[in-house]
Amino acid sequence: MSLMQRISAFLRSPKGQQLVDRGRREMAKPANQQKLKGLAARLSNRRR
Fold first, then answer.
1. 21-38 residue pLDDT tens
2. Which segments carry the region annotation Disordered (predicted)?
């Protein structure tokens, strides 16, 4: 089984679904969205 197949199987499992739901809840928080935007800005500035 390839790595992508194993990841897909994990994400379909109950534990994987819990992890996905937790990630969605965390990303719904404005503070975390701002942190992510800051990280993306730093990464895009580094590439220039």
1. 999 999 999 999 999 999
2. 14-48
